[in-house]
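Board notes (copied after class):
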Amino acid sequence: MNSKSTFTGEIFDWLSSMHFDWELKTSANDLFDLIEIRKNERIFLFLKLINLKSWQDQKIIVESETAVFKIKRAEFRSNGIATITLWEDVWYNKREIVQSRLNAILGISERIPGRVTQIRKLDKLTANDFLDKNHLQGSVSSKIRYGLFLPKRYFRVLSADYQIDTGIEELLVAVATFSHPRTFEREEIPYRSYELIRFANLRNTTVVGGFDKLLQAFTLDYRPGDIMTYADLEWSDGASYRRLGFEAISDKDPVRFWLDPVRNIRYSDNRKPEDDKLIEIYNDGSRKFVKTIH
């Protein structure tokens, strides 16, 4: 099969090595490859691949194609089909995390019952190290940090071929971080609003009920009036938030970045270095969610 770039070729090779049932759905006029992945004869995932050369060379056409794809994406997701936009630089910078998240969507993940984990607060260094290794967007400044730990006595829930250091007494398997509170008024009564900044499972694992357990612990400790967060529309429409009582409030516009195509580093507008080789790119924006605590 011919690929438009080394990047897409690597994706094809990885999908084949995982023995996924997949098919390239790209038409002759499309700039970007679209892959359909099936499981048990059902479409589970559409994966759109953004290779940087096509983005850079055909900007006007890119904008038109992106607008069309967003309509298709909404239709796919309304039918329960996960739809992900994967950038070339993200693949090269976060390959193992990307593979872990795609596998989890397709049900290929170590499943750890949340009830056997223990929860406690984390220091900044521990939380940031975990997020840098397990979250696509890495760590960011936070005020409050929680972790879920799997005690050694429960390592037995892991499959026999799962690689783990048997000398450790516990394994950090999920992390959630939160902001400082901001005070607002609801019906003239003040309340505190917090932002859920990051949540991540340990790569190649899914803590079943873990996200809910972390939210409940935070709510019990801090008694927030509400918790707000954002879903990255390139990866999700926020269905997991809805299941836990969050309500979609609004969509944020795409954000511009400046990408160094050699080092695969993204810069925001206010951190852009003087470099005429940077590529101007835009993500797909985000969706704001709020969970009101009664």
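Comment from the instructor: The mean pLDDT is 92. Helices lie at 6-17, 52-57, 59-78, 88-93, 95-105, 124-134, 210-222, 239-243.
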